[in-house]
Amino acid sequence: MRIVGWFGVLLIAAACIRAESAAPPQTDVLKTAEGDLRITPIRHASLMLEWAGRVIHVDPWSQADYASFPKADLILITDTHGDHLDLKAIAAITKADTVVVGSEAVAKSVTNARSLANGASTKLDLGGRVLGIEAVPAYNLTRGPAAGQYYHPKGHGNGYVLTFADKRLYLSGDTECIPEMAAIRDIDVAFLCMNLPYTQTPQEAADCMKRLRPKIVYPYHYRGQDVKVFEEALRGEKDIEVRLRNWY
């Protein structure tokens, strides 16, 4: 009977895990001058944005189940590493007219991608509303696999600043707290990475946000890190709201 009892407990636990993993992701809504911007964290560095009846996927990754998500009108890729550039996940959410944007390095793997270098910008018509896309640097200052090498060399990947009417959203990509980040202005929502050894610590990320000063910041890409350290470090910054979401 005891074996049966423990087996029953295991079945219940497994059911709870399945139920938790099947729970729908939380979607936040940001008001813009031209309609609501819906923000859905998915997994790790993957998220979905919906605006003007169009769907934007960022760094889709096959560790998430994309079967229940709408296909993309626009896909933004920040880097060539597998947790950002996943050809299987890209294919799963691509339709005939999907636009893919990435760096020159990304375009070598995603042959139909529009290449956008650090510092370059473009605009896309989304159902009669204009989305502004700026490619901003994302790179390591100090961290790498060996002396003189970096996990993310300058110019290889992109962060992005997206302009939705009167609101600006920043996607950091894989980066340390680089000088160019402090020069970005008027950010309403930021998504900021923090994981070792590849990018930065939660404390370093918090110090960086004190320079950038977004109204809202989502820590993301933080597998293995104590994100509460980031939240606590910004607790005294009354004009910066930290939003913790279930990325893992």
| CATH third-tier fold name | Metallo-beta-lactamase, Chain A
What is the CATH class name? Alpha Beta
Portion in helices: 10-25%
Tally of individual domains: 1
DSSP strand (E) fraction? 25-35%
Please report the distance between the alpha carbons of the first and last residues: 36 Å
CATH H-tier superfamily: Ribonuclease Z/Hydroxyacylglutathione hydrolase-like
Number of helical runs?
A: 6
Poorly predicted spans:
1-22
Largest beta sheet, briefly? 7 strands, mixed
Number of strands: 14
SSE run: HEEEEEHEHEEEEEHEHEHE
- What shape does the CA trace take? globular
Q: Any guess at the CATH architecture?
A: 4-Layer Sandwich
Mean pLDDT: 91
Strand order of the largest sheet: 1-2-3-4-5-6-7
Quaternary structure state of the chains depicted:
single chain
Instruction: Quickly give the structural class.
Output: alpha/beta
Rg over alpha carbons: 19 Å
How would the blueprint of this fold be written?
Blueprint: H1 2-22, E1 28-32, E2 35-43, E3 46-51, E4 54-58, E5 74-76, H2 87-92, E6 99-102, H3 104-107, E7 114-115, E8 121-126, E9 129-138, E10 157-164, E11 167-171, H4 179-182, E12 189-193, H5 202-212, E13 216-220, H6 227-233, E14 241-242
Parallel strand pairs: 4-5, 5-6, 6-7, 11-12, 12-13, 13-14
Antiparallel strand pairs: 1-2, 2-3, 3-4, 8-9, 9-10, 10-11
Task: Describe the protein in words.
The protein contains six helices and 14 strands. With 248 residues, it is of the alpha/beta class. The protein has a single domain, classed as Ribonuclease Z/Hydroxyacylglutathione hydrolase-like (Metallo-beta-lactamase, Chain A), CATH 3.60.15. The strands form two sheets. Strands 1-2-3-4-5-6-7 form a seven-stranded mixed beta sheet. Strand 12, helix 5 and strand 13 form a beta-alpha-beta unit. Helix 5 runs parallel beside helix 6.
